[in-house]
Write a structure and sequence with these properties.
By secondary structure, this protein is of the alpha/beta class. It contains 9 helices and 7 strands. A 4-stranded parallel beta sheet has the order 4-5-6-7. The chain has a 3-stranded antiparallel beta sheet with strand order 1-2-3, with no helix packed on it. The radius of gyration is 24 Å and the shape is elongated.
């Protein structure tokens, strides 16, 4: 019931955005607000009663406040279009890294986004809320699900292509977390201490020659297929390197190993 006024407000915001654009006002920030309102209206209406019932009410109140602020901002933009925040149109494809920053030509850029699992269709929404970078991943288990079989990486290349189509960049995690089960069965040295019992997320032994072998094969398949993608921003070699369950790997041991290798 609280959101009964939100639908007409969303309609007014869309109309005001059109009017603001017609008088020369910059509207990207208002479009982000509209996209967020539409998305979280749907989220709130789809909520089951949470453990804390106030969550739904608090979110609904925030949406209504956001709608009011957005309408007020647009009305002001229509009155004073030259005072709206200017948003540069920057080509984010094939960025270069130098001096600790990413550059598009001579312009330094700061990227904002999120990480997770996305399909190409998700980039319409991601770009609509102002995301300029998305962090996704693929691991050896996806490429070598069975011994002697190699799968394509079309799921990853499709996401990179979708990012490019929306002028977004992508951080690619070459995730070593996901090792195929057959590799553990074939090569006991991958996990000689059965670390999987305590930590199924990243149980392998970094000293294993077979770990290095399968990672090398994985990179040989993946890198040539993504390296020329215009949306590719960078590679992550590892994420969430979790050694906490292993008492014998203290901080000094890990530090010394990293220095040595």
């Amino acid at each position: 019931a609280m959101l009964t006024t939100l639908d007409p407000s969303i309609d007014r915001i869309q109309s005001l955005i059109d009017k603001a654009a017609a008088v020369g006002a910059e509207t990207p920030y208002f479009k982000v607000s509209l996209a967020v309102l539409k998305r979280y209206r749907k989220e709130v209406l789809g909520m089951k009663l949470p453990k804390e019932p106030y969550v739904m009410e608090r979110t609904a109140r925030w949406l209504l406040e956001c709608a009011v602020r957005t309408e007020q901002g647009l009305e002001e933009a229509i009155r004073h279009p030259k005072d709206t925040i200017r948003v540069p149109n920057v080509d984010l494809q094939r960025l270069k890294a130098r001096e600790g920053s990413f550059y598009s030509g001579d312009r330094p850029v700061m990227l904002a986004g999120l990480c997770g699992w996305a399909s190409p269709k998700d980039f319409d929404y991601l770009s609509s809320i102002g995301c300029t970078v998305f962090a996704g991943e693929m691991g050896p288990a996806s490429v070598f699900p069975e011994e002697g079989k190699q799968h394509d990486i079309n799921a990853l290349t499709a996401v990179l292509d979708a990012a490019a189509q929306h002028n977004m960049t992508m951080d690619v995690l070459l995730s070593p977390h996901y090792m195929p089960k057959w590799a553990y069965d074939k090569w006991p040295d991958l996990d000689p201490e059965n670390r999987r019992k305590n930590n199924p997320f990243m149980p392998w032994d970094v000293r294993s020659p077979h770990l290095k072998e399968i990672l090398s094969r994985f990179l040989d398949v993946l890198i040539p297929q993504v390296r020329s993608k215009p949306a590719l921003l960078n590679y992550d070699l590892i994420n969430e390197a979790w050694y906490r369950p292993f008492a014998h790997l203290d901080e000094a041991a890990v530090t010394n190993f990293m220095k040595t290798h």
